[in-house]
């Protein structure tokens, strides 16, 4: 086990985060599972000796530092970070969104991604052999918004800029960075979409979804590439979802 690559997955307690983590564990990675709820993380770990459960609030710098201290103390390095933790945040037009709800969405979706990246980048830069890979979970909303989603859409657009900056800043140190943008994977977080989602014309219509196992397969492909190759952006959607031509 000592030679197996080390991954950190945030938001690993449920949804696509759980599936990503399980795919990595089943394919030779040691995986630190980060998320707010220990019980959910334990469910993802399912007793696997290559899993390390570390309850973490990604919006809290001290909690994130403790996460990476634990990983370094346990395994000595970080080869892969998957920034998956996030929330939809508040819904409504900009004048209907409370400032504190906006701030909370930014703290989790954007600042949390930066805090984890900051720790992983420093570790990857200092370790020997040097380098590693960071994969950010963007969204279809990193391309186009849904109605009433200013906070979520703004943070996901920002993730794209952060991904590009990390890719550029990581070059001298062998640190690759890519982004996966997911549209309508069938998880608890997106359950309402299949029954009715608000459209650009104000109507509410069900949208197609797809098996989230395909997201885990895509992330595993990205994660297993050698560091001299990178998937910069990968978009995976339900084939007929209203994305191309949205609005």
Notes on the structure:
With 247 residues, this protein is of the alpha/beta class. The protein has helices spanning 15-25, 38-45, 61-75, 99-126, 150-170, 213-224, and strands spanning 6-10, 30-35, 51-55, 80-83, 132-137, 175-183, 197-198, 204-205, 233-237. The strands form 2 sheets. It has a 7-stranded parallel sheet with strand order 3-2-1-4-5-6-9, with helices on both faces. Helix 5 links the parallel strand 5 (132-137) and strand 6. The relative contact order is 0.14.
Shape: globular
Strand content: 15-25%
Radius of gyration: 17 Å
* Total beta strand runs: 9
**Reading side by side through the largest sheet, how are the strands ordered?**
3-2-1-4-5-6-9
Structural class: alpha/beta
Euclidean distance between termini CA atoms: 50 Å
Number of helices: 6
Helix content: 25-40%
Write the element-wise H/E pattern from the N-terminal end onward. Answer: EHEHEHEHEHEEEHE
What does the oligomeric state look like here? single chain
Give descriptors for this structure.
247 residues, alpha/beta, seven-stranded parallel sheet, two-stranded antiparallel ribbon, 38% helix, 18% strand
């Amino acid at each position: 086990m000592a030679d197996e690559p080390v991954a950190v997955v945030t938001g690993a307690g449920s949804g696509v985060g759980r599936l990503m983590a399980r795919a990595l564990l089943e394919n030779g990675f040691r995986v630190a599972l980060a998320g707010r709820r220990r019980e959910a993380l334990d469910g993802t770990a399912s007793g696997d000796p290559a899993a390390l459960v570390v309850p973490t609030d990604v919006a809290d710098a001290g909690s994130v530092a403790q996460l990476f201290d634990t990983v370094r103390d346990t395994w000595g390095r970080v080869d892969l970070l998957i920034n998956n933790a996030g929330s939809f945040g508040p819904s409504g037009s900009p004048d209907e969104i409370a400032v504190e709800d906006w701030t909370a969405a930014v703290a989790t979706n954007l600042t949390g991604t930066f805090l984890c990246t900051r720790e992983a980048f420093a570790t990857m830069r200092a370790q020997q052999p040097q380098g590693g890979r960071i994969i950010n979970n963007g969204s279809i909303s990193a391309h186009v918004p849904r109605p009433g989603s200013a906070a979520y859409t703004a943070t996901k657009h920002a993730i794209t800029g952060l991904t590009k900056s990390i890719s550029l800043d990581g070059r001298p140190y062998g640190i690759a960075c890519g982004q996966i943008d997911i549209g309508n994977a069938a998880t608890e977080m997106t359950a309402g979409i299949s029954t009715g989602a608000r459209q650009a014309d104000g109507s509410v219509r069900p949208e197609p979804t797809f098996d989230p196992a395909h997201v885990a397969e895509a992330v595993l492909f990205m994660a297993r590439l050698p560091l001299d190759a990178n998937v910069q952006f990968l978009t995976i959607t339900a084939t007929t979802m209203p994305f191309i031509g949205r609005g």
